[in-house]
Amino acid sequence: MTRPGKERVTLLGATGTMGFQAFLELRRRSDRYDLTLLLLPGDKRVAKLLPHLRAAGVPLAGRSGVVVGDGIRVVWGDATRPEDVAPAVAGADWVLNAMAYISPQADYRPTLAWAVNDAAIGNVLAAIAAEPDGAARIGYVHTGSVAQTGNRPAFGRNGSPGTYVGRIGDPMNPSVYDEYALSKIAGERRVMESDLERWVSLRMTFIMPTDHADLMALFDPIAFHMPLDTRMENVTDRAAGLAMVNCLDLRDDAGFWRRAYNLGGGPGMRTNARDYLSAAYDLMGLDVARCMDANWFALRNFHLQYYEDSSTANAYLRYQGDDAASHHAALEQSMAPALKALRWVLRRVPLLARLVEWGVRRSFRRLALRHRNSPRHWYLTRNDARVRAFFGGYDAYDAIAPDALAAPARPDGPWRRLDHGYDEAAERLEPAALRRAAEFRGGHCLAEGWDGDWHARLPWRCAAGHEFEARVSTVLRGGHWCEECLREWDGGRRAAVEPFFAQAWYADHDPDELQPYPASGAQDVADADIIWRRGLP
What is the pLDDT of residue 521? Predict the structure, then answer.
């Protein structure tokens, strides 16, 4: 399949929102790259790839084995099976991984989330290492997530500054019961601790579809997990796909590789949850405040943030071509003609608009009150652990004015930059600096010496006494620490002894919130989507 002078790229997750855009970008560069896709036979989203596969002459009679066309090779298989990953990676010069099992599905099927977001990464890394000179020769582009650093409130406790502006190196702080975030942390750590010499992790923010139908397709109470004051620096799907593919232009730029980057859309893509929802519904001629109540939304325990350092990724990858106006134009262009016609009528006939808003509200109200993954449902059914995690308790929930969604968003306030516990400007760190950084994380660096190699793997001990090995770059530059401590939902205990982690936790938790969250609490929404569709209580 591969022609002389062309590089071979394996793309995982080509049917996803970002992965499909990466696929399109790679096809635009078909003079430079031949493409291998690992496709799940039962994935209905493969349908959007079919016109491109047919145009390339890829046989489509059966969805099994390996089939080859002009510039495209398809391996039908499952990334959670090593025997399927190996032929997909065979012969590759690059592996681009846009594959993820995301929320809300990750909430409902956490075992599958871990299989895709963590174990499958191990399969990919093993397949790369098994190739001739694979660890040194093959470039790997990984996708991390903004969810890894958890909730970053716009306004801190008792009038203190918020932590809504983040950067690479901030602590891993997965929201309570967020199995997606936990599995993404684990998957990224595998990459950082691997022996690959050319890898990068692009931590994706909220990827906004540029097709209106895709944007409005989700009907799930996970929308209510997002606090209305949430700050977000989004990125369009086409910009994210472009960023992934532009990594291929940097093979010889040693300063780019073996690092993580926050991939946001830049200042022009910053907004808040309240304004985001308002704009999305206004595009359809509706007032969101008439469609939903404010007390359907959580007060904390989500994710998203502005990025202090997304300009660093853009300096390398040149992907920030969209802003709010261009994204709005893309949605406008892709809207179904019938929806545009309805919007025209609604904006001119207020009584009809109120009737449609009533119908939308009726559907969402049922979702908010009855779905097992809805914050309002947790309050009504006295789910103590989740009410505490997402609101801080029943009193905090009761203080929410149901009509508060109609109020304008509060402007951005002061914010606090999190300290990473070492001199980030220093060209070279001494062993004493590692010891201080470990102590700032509540633990110790157990190495007797260190030669200054950022990628050296050293022994560490956390405040709970767990001993582990990790590269210096994983800990200091990546924000990772003890894997064992992440397995328990006890942020209060950790914050009391880990100043590094405490900066993030105490932004929206009181120091006396020491009670751990039951580990079994994540299971109460298992298969909640299936239960909902079947109309079961």
Answer: 82
Mean pLDDT of the chain: 97
CA-closest candidate to residue 78, choices 120, 127, 112, 122:
120
pLDDT at 312: 99
Question: How far is Cα 60 from Cα 7, in angstroms, rounded to an integer?
Answer: 24
Alpha helices in 205-323 (DSSP H): 212-215, 237-246, 273-282, 310-317
pLDDT at 519: 82
Boundaries of domain holding 81 = 7-332
- Strand order of the β-sheet with 259-263 is 66-68, 72-76, 33-39, 7-12, 94-97, 139-145, 199-204, 259-263
Phi and psi of 325, rounded to 5°? -70, -45
CB 224 within 8 Å of CB 375: yes
Instruction: Confirm whether 514 is domain-assigned.
Output: no
| CA distances for 418 relative to 187, 226, 499, angstroms | 24, 22, 10
What is the C-alpha separation between 355 and 101, in angstroms, rounded? 37
Tokens of 465: 């006494």
How confident is the model over 345-357, as pLDDT tens digits? 999 999 999 999 9
Model confidence, pTM: 0.97
b/e map of 320-333 (b: 16 or more CB within 10 Å)?
A: bebebebbeebbee
Give the count of domains, the chain: 1
CATH assignment at residue 85:
3.40.50.720
Tell me, yes or no, whether 534 lies in a domain: no
Contacts of 428 (CB under 8 A, 6+ apart): 452
Q: What is the pLDDT of residue 461?
A: 99
Distance from chain centroid for Cα 277: 19
CA nearest neighbour of 375 among 302, 268, 454, 273:
302
